[in-house]
Amino acid sequence: AFGPARIGIAFVLFAPKSGRRGSPARRIFVGVSNPRMGIYASRDAGKHWRRLRGQPKGLRVNHGALSRAGVLYLTYGDAPGPNGMTRGAVWRYDPGNRQWRDITPIHPGGSRGSFGYGGLALDPRHAGTVMVTTMDRWAGGDAIFRSADSGAHWRNLAPGAGWDASQAPWLRWIGLAWPPAHARLPLHPGIASTGWMGAIAIDPFHAGHVLYGTGWGLWASRDVTAADRGGRTHWVFSDRGLEETVPLALISPPAGAHLVSGLGDLDGFRHASLATSPRQGTFSSPYFQNTSSLDFAGQRPEFIVRAGSSGWPHATFGAYSEDGGRSWHAFARRPAGSRGSGTIAVSADAAAIVWTPRPAWHPGMAFLRGGKTYVSLDHGRSWQLSRGLPPAARAVSDREDARRFYALAGRTGAVYASRNRGRSFRLVSRPVSAARGFNFPQLAAAPGRAGDLWIATPAGLWHSADGGRHFTRLAEVEKAFQLGFGKAAPGHRYPAIYLFGEIGRETAVFRSGDAGKSWARINDRQHQYGRFHVVCGDPRIYGRVYLGTDGRGIVYGDPAR
User: Fold this and answer.
1) Beta strand pairing status for 234-237 and 162-164?
2) pLDDT at 412 over 50
3) How does pLDDT run across 244-254, given as a tens digit for each residue?
4) What is the pTM of this model?
5) Is 6 exposed, middle or buried (0-12, 13-18, 19+ CB in 10 A)?
6) Cis peptide before 286 (omega within 30 of 0)
7) Strand ranges, E, within 174-311
8) Backbone phi, psi, residue 64, to 5°
9) How many Cβ atoms are within 10 Å of 65's Cβ, its own excluded?
């Protein structure tokens, strides 16, 4: 009944004047994100409910707010967002006379494009002051509207506003990888400033202090009241860290920056410091919309390759760096019939690059899926098909032997090996069964040891010391979702292993200092962060592990002292 987005109850509002100290508010409004349900009201503290009559049809309610006088304000869209809104409106409802009124600042359609409404805020100290934001207005950019007379008249703050992103230099690139929303319109320069405005809030103690959220973080202004007098407003990006990022790839080379990341929507960063946002911002020249895969050469760790996706159809979707990620060179060409992303690997001596990009016909934004596998022996100037691999195989390089690559076919669980720099592969074993979804089997090559391979799957963890010909399952590990390596423990030679998986029926992050013979949990119940996409140890600091979360950014941990 809810369609593809099963949001359910979007908000609950208590009328402040309907109760008294020591007793609950009797009047309650509930918003259900379903066009056939909408707003329900109770007059007896929730014992009985009725659906309000006369409310807008065919739209989902997104946000609701009650004024001190008890008037209900609502924003609507035909989808919950953050994408997909093509229609929307702003309404108010007066419970006193049971009257509905359409107070939409501008209606979507025609030259204004298709969009909905997301954010909504009321000034509790100034009756009649309302602020709303559009959502998914790609033609011309989203807008911030402000009214001082309960929605009778509106002022669009965006055209005369100024945005200061000096504390987030990575924002200057957002939008450059996106094609124009309309053939006759230039690329919207403020897409990082006003895109995906899902929420807005007015400081109850400072009328001019307003914050709104986007897909890239929070913006704040302290002079919004100037708009009521026809003045300009000024907005500052003041986040000290990103609130909602999805790391798709992490590497920690043994030289240069301790961490290099690939992210969804923000390309990626060279993290020279883990305490501050990189001064140079995101990767550039080229800038990708998403970086799905990273790798460094085992014997030349300053040589890094990355693969991603871009909104521009003629991009090459791949690049290499010779200085540890400070600067990048776009591949001169991309493999025929490909659209980037997928997985990429570079040989230990940086001479060969093996890439399994997404095929051009693949629907949607499946960052981690791939098609055919290709190899380049001239840093991306030309590509040739790697022989012997099935579609969507994931290749990794041997960290010691520059001639060797290995690949895992997730659909069959078969392992392949190459001894000629990725030109051709041959089947060497079938150690695991196929898996689907986010738990795609992971093949990893241990640093410092030729032919040393690990496979992590939801069915367990396997190890090979002979280039993949024979694998042994580690009985203690029940499930293995992500695997990474770091500096060896004191007194040990084998690199430390970090695992996000299940041991003893406990899903957690584990570390092994003895090549998987024993494991110790290194996080606790207060530090779980949901699902991890990537696990990566630091080769220079024993015990340090980097974790790529599914929407909570990059988390790293050091051993307790």
Assistant:
1) parallel
2) yes
3) 789 999 999 99
4) 0.84
5) exposed
6) yes
7) 199-202, 210-214, 217-221, 234-237, 247-251, 259-263, 267-271, 290-296, 304-309
8) -135, 150
9) 21
